[in-house]
Known about the structure:
By secondary structure, the protein is of the alpha+beta class. Helices cover about 40% and strands about 15% of the residues.
Amino acid sequence: MTADNHDASAIVTELSHEAKLKLDIIESLLEPCDRQTYGQRLKEAAKKLGKSVRTVQRLVEKWQAEGLLALTGTERADKGKHRISQEWQDFIIKTYREGNKGGKRISRKQVALRVEVRAKELREADYPNYRTVYRVLQPLIEAQEQKKGVRSPGWRGSQLSVKTRTGDDISVEYSNHVWQCDHTWVDALVVDIEGEIIGRPWLTTVIDTYSRCILGIRVGFDAPSSQVVALALRHAMLPKNYGAEYGLHCQWGTYGKPEYLFTDGGKDFRSEHLKQIGVQLGFSCILRDRPSEGGVVERPFGTLNTELFAGLPGYVGSNVQQRPEQAEKEACLTLRELEKLIVRYIVDSYNQRIDKRMGDQTRYQRWEAGLLATPDLIGERDLDICLMKQTNRSIYREGYIRFENLMYQGEKLAGYAGERVVLRYDPRDITSVLVYQRQKNKEILLARAYATGLETEQISLEEVKTSNQKIREKGKTISNHSILEEVRDRDIFVAKKKTKKERQKEEQKQLHSAVLKSKPVEVEPEPEIEDTPVPKKKPRVLNYDQLKEDYGW
Length: 553
């Protein structure tokens, strides 16, 4: 029987004092009680064992699966020893210590490379690999960190560890192992399609802890919530393809899913919705122990602010008292234009830079090199069920659905007329929605419904809401056609868009022109024509004798 494969028929004949204490605690926790009493017992058990509450819960789970073997376990006889020669152990430790004297810093990986070089010099084919080198150095590094009194493990050589709220330490060892997510206000004012200032949008980022690579974003005016986090995660998990209008020189090639989502304790990250997403997609949501653990995800916000936002029209800065005076006057970027600038900065600049802790690899190169295997492609439908915004609607006759004053129609929906369904949609483009029907505890996809007449368009939720308001103000009937026409009219306006100062001059010019047109028109008198003498006609001379002869006079 090996240490890693316990025999199910093994009998435990003797328990240590610690094992007996664990057994008493487990028995007390398994006794029937209400939820409040169980929570109190759990806290007391954690205090007695000197462990976290989550560790005690895992102990109970292991007890239920393995019985007494969970309390005793088995240990290898050579635990704490390494199956390499003492000479190699001495060489590894000496190399690490010599490489970290004074201002020099050497990582475990670099020690492993030196071991390989040494083996070639000695012509030895059997030498410690990098995993063995890591195991030899681990106790030394932990002792050094403990001596410094570091509260959080943090960086250990080139290795990063994060500490959870439950007291667990997670060593980040590869790409897509631990993702982090957070929100910030963009320090730049954004205008609507007609140039009126809306305010500052929110930016949500998803970052890979191992490589510091930004994997996905969400830009919008929705306040931080589990839905916003879900949309950012959806963007991070899917492959990203952008058109020529973004002007990208590199590709945003990151995708996949994490094993852990490491966040602060905000309501959006503690929500049942996010936990449900984690369960369905196969990752764990964990909370960080203290604010200082969030440096990986918060530091890029400062970089974005100083290198991108500070140079944009409408930049307001993070300090309201030191806000530039011209911020409101210069603001001219729409939300879509801002999103394009952010995407290009991340793809062509931020992810292509070398991080100081990453050696000679860019963030994107480290993400690629740190993958254990090619990430699995998650189907969009799987992500739609968990991540897209949703609303409830009824199906009308002939299979029509009405949402935000748009009429949608989908194949085979006529057979569900009169039934309530769930619509899931992406706020960036609501010309198509997914229609689901709830059946017990599941949601079944019925069809994809398209806004009639808008199949080839791309219109966001915010654009539709703005159009609805404009059409109402004009007293016109709202329909798919009227919304499309209103959006296109605004697009034409944007194509000819000018700065606020230029627009004010244009408005003054138009006003001046209108005033001139409103004045009475002065008709200039016709020019007088000088009289010219008209030639007199000569009198006609009649022959009296002839007249007498003709008329019988």
